[in-house]
Amino acid sequence: MSTPEYSASAKSRFDITNLTTDPFVVATWSVAMISWVIAFIGSIVANIEGSFPRFTWWGLVFQLLMLVFLPAVYCFDVVEWYRLFLTCGYSIAFIYTTNSATNLVWSGGSATGAASAGVILLSMVNLIWVFYYGSDNASPINQWIDSFSLRGPKRSSVSPFHNSRPISHDKYSGSENDEFKHSSWNNQRYMSSTALNGLENVSQGDTLETTPFNSPDHDGLGTNITAGGTNITIDEFPYTARALYNYQKSPDDENEISFEKDEILKVNDIHSRWWQAKRANGEIGICPSNYVELIE
Question: For the whole model, what pTM was predicted?
């Protein structure tokens, strides 16, 4: 069974599989709904039998609204747009349920006890949701939780290039435009420490001649350096990685690349959340590190 692609851009099309393929949401939401029903029925019976804290009713209504909202944002695949709202909403719900639990747990009667058990369980789920939606998708706990999802880990909301201005090809012309494009990140070439092996014996008087990346003589595999008559090829993508999931690049970021599950990529700069990667067809861009694993 292939893993569905994940895209950070929101889709307005309703698809219930966005919800059912995420075990964490299905499990926590189910527990929360059962807890809400227990608390609601217990509150009704307790209110009939005697005095009942009115504050709890508003807390239960607010909790129900948040419980209805959660599956809606998943089915429409707009969770990333509402993470802040979900965090704030469940923080408020946590305050309501904990205050209700304080008032109910010391009251007598089986109905009140059932209501208090329900709001206590709701408090626990609300707290879990606050930590989950309040954390970035690249955090260790969120990555571990999302690893059980059939859709794979979610894209980190923090990208080093999302805040950069796009290159305007209309504003620049001629050599100015060429110089600007050649100075962009995807034309920069880095040498790792392992790639520098073999240059230790280059004397101070030797001349280093490099073959530019955009040169017709460049083979696309590395940077050619001539030192003292010796031709050395430096691999610009010294690591090999395998894609764990399908990935569809964001339409808002021209620096990303798309790839398929089990695709082999050559990668570099692997010490951050986003790695520089090169596909077999020569396409170069960045990819999220939690979507690939190093194999060489």
Answer: 0.57
